[in-house]
Write a structure and sequence with these properties.
Blueprint lengths: L20 H9 L8 E2 L5 H11 L11 E7 H17 L3 H5 L2 H4 L3 E7 L8 H21 L3 E5 L2 H4 L1 H7 L6 E11 L21
Antiparallel strand pairs: 1-5, 2-3, 3-5, 4-5
């Protein structure tokens, strides 16, 4: 399958710099899709490759790529969720098991793993870069016409759960981006009042 994106530019190539009102409109109306409303189909192989390519075009001080992706879909995703379910059941906590619904229902999940590299670039900046990767992936999936939601939950932070995912020492789960086809339009939610959140610095 061919990509719907323009060819990747060569290193050092001059890139277009122009207004993009359609992008502004998309951002102004963007809304995550509730995870439990996501159904088949999920992105196909070519579409997923495009989504990951866009996700990786994140600000990245030092060009370290301090993040990686784990794709969960089909039987493998079901097996992963079953391992987490067994872990929750072993702890006798029904709440933990119930929270897995958001992961189980969507046909695809992309885990973004923050993998800071030692060196001159502060770890905090590298963690922020992983967050932008999640944002890019979420927005790209929505712009492609899929429903998508970026979540974390107990299995993003629990050491036994992250071990099932294959998270290594020094890594953390930045988020699971859940992707599928929305069965219903998401409803607008309350947005913050910006007045108390914005000020101009003055000496």
């Amino acid at each position: 399958m061919t990509s719907a994106l323009p060819p990747a530019p060569e290193f050092g190539a001059a890139l277009p710099f122009e207004a993009a009102p359609d992008v502004l409109r998309f951002l102004a109306l963007r809304r995550s899709t509730p995870a439990v409303t996501l159904a088949e189909p999920a992105p196909n192989g070519s579409q997923l490759a495009d989504l990951l390519r866009i996700a990786a075009r994140a600000p990245d001080h030092g060009k370290l790529a301090p993040w990686r992706f784990v794709i969960l879909e089909g039987a493998d995703k079901a097996a992963f969720a079953a391992r987490l379910d067994a872990l929750a059941q072993s702890r006798g906590d029904a709440t933990l098991a119930a929270k897995l619904a958001k992961l189980k229902i969507p046909p695809m999940a992309v885990a973004v793993i923050s993998s800071p590299r030692p060196g001159a670039i502060p770890e905090w900046e590298q963690i922020l870069s992983a967050g932008v990767v999640c944002t890019n992936l979420l927005y790209a999936a929505l712009a492609m016409g899929f429903g998508a939601n970026w979540i974390t939950d107990w299995y993003s932070y629990d050491a036994d759960a992250t071990a099932v995912l294959g998270v290594r020492e020094g890594e953390r789960v930045a988020g699971f981006v859940l992707i599928g086809t929305a069965r219903e339009a998401p409803l607008e939610r309350e947005r913050p009042d910006l007045d108390p959140l914005v000020r101009r610095w003055t000496p």
